[in-house]
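Field: COMPLEX_INPUT
Field: COMPONENT_COUNT = two
Field: RESIDUE_TOTAL = 1014
Field: MODE = joint
Values follow.
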Amino acid sequence: MTPDDEPAVRAAVRWYRLLLRFLPPAYRRAVSGEWCQVFRDEYADVRRSGRVAVALLGLRVVLDLITILPGAWWSVVRESAGRRRRYSRLRQRRRGARRWGAALRFTDLRYAVRSLRRHPAPVLVSVLSLSLGIGATTTMISVVDAIDFRPLPYRDADRLVTLGQTGPGLDGQLASPGLFLDWQDRLRGVRSLAAASPIAVSVGDDEMVLRASRVSEEFFRALDVAPVAGRVLVPDDVRSGSRVALISHHVWQALFDADPAAVGQTITISWAGEYRGVAAESFTVVGVLPRGVRYPRGSDVWLPAWDGFGEARDNAMLSVIGRLGSDGSLAAARGEVAAVSDQLAIEKGEAYEGEAGQVNTFRDAIQLRASERASSTRFLLLAVAAFVLVQAVINAAAVFLVRAARHERDLVVRIALGARRSHLLTLMLTQSLLVSVAAGVCGVLLAGWGIELADARLSVSASGLAPVLDVRVLAAALGLSLISGLAVGAFPALRVGRSDLHGDLRVPGTRAAGGGRLQRLLVIGQVASALVLLTGAATLTRDFVGLVTRDLGFAPDRLVVARLPVGATHQDAVRATERVASLPGVESAALAGQPGSAPLYQLENGDSLRGVPLYRYRVNPDYFSTLGIPLLAGRTFTASDRAGSTPVAIVSETAARTWWSDHSPVGRTLLAHNPDGRVELVRIVGVTGDERISRDPEQGIIPILYRPWVQLSHERRRTEIFARTAGESGPLVPQARTLVRELRRGNGWQGDGATTMTAMLGDRLDVQRFRTAALTLFSIFGLLLAAMGIYGVVASVVSQRTAEIGVRLALGARPADVFALVIRGGMGLALVGLAVGGAGAFGVRRAVESIVVSTPGLDILPVIAAGVFLVAAVAAACYWPARRAVRIDPTTALRD
Amino acid sequence: MSADRREIPPEGEPLRPLVFAILLALNERDLHGYAIMTVVNEQLRRRALLGPGTLYRTLKELKEDGLIAHAPAPSDADSRRHYYRITTKGRRVARAEADRMAVWVDAARAGRLLGDNR
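Field: COMPLEX_OUTPUT
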């Protein structure tokens, strides 16, 4: 390889080299140099003709390799055996082997192609089902590989750690700027401590909205990643406030067509945020990060944080990373962080008390993040995909078994004329490998699309780990297709391997039923696995329906949600709510937000409300009526709950049960320690029904404490306006969006716009919808394959027993009896399959139930439903052969 | 009845089309692997099947049988490329094959299989 080769050519040659690994090492060493040279030349030629030509070249070299593989291995095995023993007889056989190897050339491949073309329909079904199986499995392998196995692209990734703040509402992944500064001052065991804060930017004129990160001086020293072009950001960039940017591989491709000359070019980046007055600036691109590096939070652009992050302690928004010193361990770092938290609490008092820190290795941290959405789902889907592949292999094996039975006479004649069994085996394996490799190529194409889909639905990239179709995954796909091909070919090959083939020449046609037993076993396997898949799908579907239809505690229809810019002031929010309420078609509008630095609450008996997850909301008086949350006791907030009047609160049903057990909390008081040091008594005036407000639809009910909007100090936090409309809520969305945009435009704020509550809830169910849809699709596919398998068996039984059925009919059997006979044959297989699959179905249902929340207790319904569905499908598959059997004409059948 | 292989002239076994095409390609000038592949693919119009593996396996056999040999690379050529040239024996075998084919072509013409009357 020379430096003048382009990256694409180099990548292709790497791929080819990987392919050549299937050759025996000695053989490979002798040939790989020249072969690669030829491949490089041809690739360079072909690639100008477009992707299809490249794909064809890929297919061709794979086929080329498959044709020579057996001969290559054979020659190496024989040669080493010959060297070791030096038997002249062996040498003679080696010459035979060479002749045999020579015979396996175009003729074999041509024979395979021709013979496959003779009955194309079942072969096509095999290719399709195998490609679906390979595509799905490859997709999930890529996802699991990205999250769990692929080495991180950072040098010495084991020493890379993340630090985060824990506490109520904090998951230990982010930290406040104030805490970060303290850590920077005091931590000794963690070097190169650095932070990044997220910011939404748009790049260029086409308003490509991207996630960006503003990073501190040491960020890339800590991350230690080599750029694919240019350089990373250095401390000087931050200190001098240079307007330079580092871009992700994705942006490099989208904006610059992966042109290395992108480095040094200028792009316009605009952002909005709490930094008023700044709208857009020109940045010089200084480097490109490798594919897959998108830390933190799926960033696409990295900018120097020239003005720092501030010193706020109430806003955990920084992703903090660092490196363990060469002598430091993770445990030591954890101890040190805990010690710093204690120190701070002692030195600075109560306000710092809640600030515990957490240290995780980098992989653990991003795995945690990725797992939020893809955790158990990725393994479930991988298992299901592998299952589909197994089913496809069984189906294809059945198809090839039938073909082998049909060609048996052909084989027998070949053996009689002196063909070697080994050659016949190779012939059959060539056929099945041809099918599986074709399926592998289609599967990889499917996977390319599937990976994008899975990534989008499971939000894997956002964690900083991007699933890609790289060499590892391609090798896995190739391996899968070769293994499938061998497995598919093994069944007919087993039959060829049997020694009693000679007899068949004498009595032609009598052995056609011989493949029957194996074929029946395969069909039983298909039915069993279809039942397992169907049960999984039924369980997930039920869970999904449960999630969609469950009681949220509020009425989600006819509700519009508008998210206000983070920088909106108290007056802005109130005024915006009034404007929304006055829009035509709006019945009422409510205002709700998270309090910034909320007071710490204490019960009358002195217990703190800390330690249990608790949502705290500040809402306006119309909140409960607008969302339709029922009042269970006491009253809701009114206009008389003003700033300065008696502090009041409302708690949710679960909160009441958690802290006051059976007694009504109405009239009780809470002690509130405000951040400014004031302590006040808060009176509980009402209890409302629970609402499920978590972003994670599978999370249980969390206690909520509501305070009046006006009684808490205002801080720039997430604020939402809810509007209940009289009719359809859809038409209001654009108006609400305009309103939010107006607020943003006037002030240079950041805001997410507006949507309907139903759409928002729908988005939250993305993961569930994706996995339910995938499993349902796969199980229907499995069902079809099983039905086809049964149809094949029953139809071939009918055609073999034509004469027998003719005799039965001639002797007076009624058509109904014959019909029942055929149906019984098919149903018998189905019932055995159901019995076998039933056990597996209960197992899979358990596995599925462990990842869903609903369906408590043992529930046999999905299994039964799946079974009934399968039996109906099998009955349909048996119907046509049975009808044909009934219509057999006795005289014709007997004469033939 | 079609032509039986045993009736083929005793000068030699008929060559496989791929072998003949390679010898034909090398008869004009020395070529490197990829050039052979390009020429042969054009001759055989079978682009879909000849890959590096098949090509080099055949080249190896031809070398072992003494029909072709390594050739020195031209001074301006890429040093990574190996060049091949046809040997005297190779030329003889190729000519014999061409003669054999010519006999059949003549026969086909005489039998009015070729030309105007099909």
